[in-house]
Every structure is written in structure tokens, then in C-alpha cells.
Give the backbone structure.
Amino acid sequence: MIIAVDATGGEYAPHEIVKGAIKAAQEYKVDIALVGKKSILHVLAGRHLNKPGLNIVEASQTIELGESPLNAIRNKPDSSIVVGINMIKNGTASAFVSAGNSGAVVGATLLNLGKVKGLQRPALGSLLHINAAAPILLIDAGANADCRPSFLVQFAQLGTIYAKEILGISSPRVGLLSNGEEETKGNRLTQESHKLLRKTNLNFVGNLEGQDIPKRTVDIVVTDGFTGNIVIKTLEGLGDTFINLRQVGQLISSAYHLHGRALLYDVGLGSLVKRMDYREYGGSCLLGVNGNVIMAHGRSQSRAIKNAIGLAKQIVERGILQIIREESYE
Amino acid sequence: MIIAVDATGGEYAPHEIVKGAIKAAQEYKVDIALVGKKSILHVLAGRHLNKPGLNIVEASQTIELGESPLNAIRNKPDSSIVVGINMIKNGTASAFVSAGNSGAVVGATLLNLGKVKGLQRPALGSLLHINAAAPILLIDAGANADCRPSFLVQFAQLGTIYAKEILGISSPRVGLLSNGEEETKGNRLTQESHKLLRKTNLNFVGNLEGQDIPKRTVDIVVTDGFTGNIVIKTLEGLGDTFINLRQVGQLISSAYHLHGRALLYDVGLGSLVKRMDYREYGGSCLLGVNGNVIMAHGRSQSRAIKNAIGLAKQIVERGILQIIREESYE
């Protein structure tokens, strides 16, 4: 299995991407193709290039984070994103991981790989690691700002496949994010989506509200990409605020040796903060396209990149794309 | 100044409401009219009724939290919500505070007091106490699930008045909540709203994303009531998760006397958790209606009720309703 990794995308590229890729090659025993400028990557990857598992694929151009996606794809055919997506198309890679311009990744994927037959829109499935017990899947995390009710039903179908395979839940509970529990609550989109979801054979448990997300009353949170993106980023922002907790743990443990830290960890805070940190978890999967495309957080450092590559490996191994292709959509 | 308080609304009614009202009467030197069943309230308020500042106004009916708002208003004309709103209408109260059925409060307000001339929709302005330095105003926190761009412009105007008077900011920064910083990002609603907001003379600083809310890059977060409600409840749910922090503080302080607690408080965590707790802060103001109506959180206990009454007093004293009436709307 070869996983192509965008070496030039993201705020900490290329150093942290290369570091993460080297770690992943060692830990997961996968072959990694670092896509980017050979001259730079040769220096960064150095002696690791002599070992099996790590290769370089030349891409002379870079799409920056702020660039307009469609123009960038058109004007930079030799960018790491376009080259990486084309590696899936021509069969030289099983998956592509990028922390770069997310609009460009989605655009290049739709243009060069296309959607799975029967699907109206692809969606971004993102795992929220709030509770220590198990993550929740949020879909759509940002691929579609404006949605129709029928899109949300398909997101629920895609999410169900993903949660079954990646979270190992046999009948994942699907909740529709809304501003009230009752069926009659919500905006026009959720009211209509609720009616459609009731008619499916999914394990639809009804609406859920914002406060229910951390309580994990469902396995899958279905929402439009606008709301999903805002929810994830709000949680992330709060995570940043709480990152200080680590410093507290360190302060206490240095002041009182191991005791203070032990107390913090006893009540699960250490792991909670760790789990809300995109520096650790960074991989969202673009579901419903003809390829395995993983989007890592733009601020991913080596550990997040390593984890995103691990997720890519899992997605390939479980054959999620094939299962998605075999599903019949509402 | 008489502030009417719904004694039968909310999960902890009537006990906690009465306790909060008694505290508020003492602390803020306002006259409070407890609206509810006299027979019950007489027993609960007891000896405090002999002191100045606390009175009872009979309302024989109660609208439950789960009831359909419009039916409830129609069928229960002697409910605490309808009686309380009518006290504003006939001039016997300057403001009304309720932790009860929020749909019924909005409905009874629109039906009996109406909107301020020139406004398309009223909006719920909610103060987020995430940062210790100063709260942020989020508007609309849930009054309108489906919005037009012109509604959001008026919410920004209402929010600007409120932030000036209540937060004491001379030129509050207005941000539009979206899924990207750039003007071109967002759904159709925010893209169009962005263009309209640019044309106003408000201090509009552009889009903000979810992660910017805790960072307090703006003073006012403008959004539709669907998204606003979900953001607030997500923060609240996470607050619940972090309430454990208090227990950590207590554990550490009891184990190491005052030292551990001091460390926690030094980095601002104690106050951060306190500020995210709706048990402390519970008052959102329904802006743009002909009356001062404060909606407290349904799970408000005495301290939150006391604080909501304090907010009501402040709103009356600053004459916010008159300022809103004198504004000319886009």
C-alpha cells in the first residue's frame, strides 16, 4: 500500500509533514510517497530515504492556504495537491493525505476523481475526540456550506458506513443537529431532513442539541457543512483555551512531584485536553468521492500527520470506498 | 422599579427562583413581583414578604417547558408568562424575567407587546462569559431559526446598542460568524449578509470563525438563531464536561491545602470554568420588542436568577429600549 502525502501543504510544512511521514512509515509499515520539491525533501528526509517505506515524488508547485481553490488547481497542474490526487487516479497511490488548502483538495478531487455514482455531494467526516471512551463522527464538517434535505440523508448514509468500519459500531446511532430536540424544532433544512431521515432504515434517533455532542448520546452527528464547520472550530478554539491545562499539570507536578499530575489525570482531564487537541488528531475523510482522501488540519504537526496517515491506512484496509460504492442511495 | 419574575418557569422552579429573587431584592435594591400561585409562593417566600421589595402577583396557571408555545399562550391566559408580560404592557412592571418555556415567552411578548417599529424580527442577545477579561455578545442566540440577510444586519444594529450600554464599549467590533475568514466564504446567508454589513456605519470587522469566539477578536458575534443556539449549547455542554475541574481544584486544595487551588486560579482556570457555567450566568435579553424581557436558562438556580434580575435592572436603568426605538434601521 502506497500512501501519497502532500509535503508542502499546511502551516508547518514541509518540516513537520516529513517528520510525521517518517514516523508513520516506521510505525504503520506503509509505503509513503512524499509529494513535493525533490531538492528540499531530499535534504529533510535525509538518511530515511535509504530505508524502505519512504519515497519522493516530484511536484514543483505549491498551492498556498489562502489561494482561490479553482484558480490554483487550474494554474498549478504540478502542485503537490494535483499531483497527489492524480496518483490515486492512475493507481500509483491508495490514498492521499494533505494538510494544505482544503478547498483545493476538494476541488482537485471532484475534478479528477469525481463523485461516487448516486451521491449528490461528497461530505467531510470528522472524528471528534471529546470523550475518552470513544470518538463521535461529525458529517459534514465543511464540504458543503448550503445543503438540501436530501444531501443530509446521504451524509447520514455515508456516516453510517464510516462509523461501522472505523469506529466498529454495528448499528451507529444517527442524530440530526438542531436547535431543539422535538421534531418540529429546527430551521427549514433540519425540519425537512428529519422527516426524510425517519423514512430511512438508518438507526436515526432524532434531533440532538449542541450540549448533547460532548455527552455522546449519538455516534454520528449529521449537519450541513456550514454548521458543522462552526461547531468543530468552536470546540477547537475552546481546546486552545484549555491547552493551558497541560501547563497546570506540569506546574503542579513539578511543585508537588508526581502527585498533582496524578490527580489531574485521575479525573480524566489530561486525556480530555489531549483529545481536543488538533495537534494530536487531524484527519477528516472526504467521503463519497472516487478515492481515499484524508484532510489533515492546517495546523497539523508531525503527530497529527502521523495519525492522519494511520487513518488513511485503516480506510484503505477496511475497503470503505468499495462499501460506499455498493450502497444504494436515497 | 418593579421587576416581574416568573416564579413557576424553569427546571428548578419555584424554590430556586424564589431564593434568587429574595437575594436580588436584597442585593440590587429593586422591587420584585413574584408571579405565580400565591398559596405556594407565600409559603416559600415566608418572612421575606414582610420586608419591602418582595411581592406576589397571582397567576394560577403554569406553561410547562415541553408545551407547544402558541397553544399554551392561547389556553393559559392566567399563566405566569402571560401575566408577567401583561404587567409590562399595563405599566406595572419595568421588566420581566423568566426561566420558563422560551418559545412561550417570545410568543407572548410578540403577541402582547409587539416589535419595535422598523424591525423585521426580534433577536435574543446572549452574553458569553468565556474569557475572564470581558464577555462577548452573541446575537441571535435562538429566536429565529431561518433568517434573511437583512435580519442579520438589524441584529448587528441591536447588538451594537446593547454592547455599548451593557458592556460599556464605545465602538463594539461586529463579526459575522462563518466557516471562513474571507468575504467569499460562508453559506448564501452569510455571503449576502457580509455585503450588506460592509455598507453600514457599524464597526464591522468581517467574518469570524468558530475558533475566534473564545479568542474574543470581536465584541459581537452576529449569526442566525439556528447556528447561534447550537454554538451556545455546544459551549455549554463542554462547560458541563469541565465542571469537574472544580472538583479537581477542591481535591488538590484539600490535599495540599491552599497551594494547589492557588495554582489553578493563577492561570485563570477557576474563573474560566465558573464563567462557562449557566448556573452562574443565565440572562439573555430579547431585543427589538416593546418591553424589557430577560430569558434565563431553563436550568437556572438561585444565583443565575439573581444575576438575570441584576441584568434586567441594568437594562432598565440604561434605557436600552428607548435607544432601540430611536434608532433608524436598515
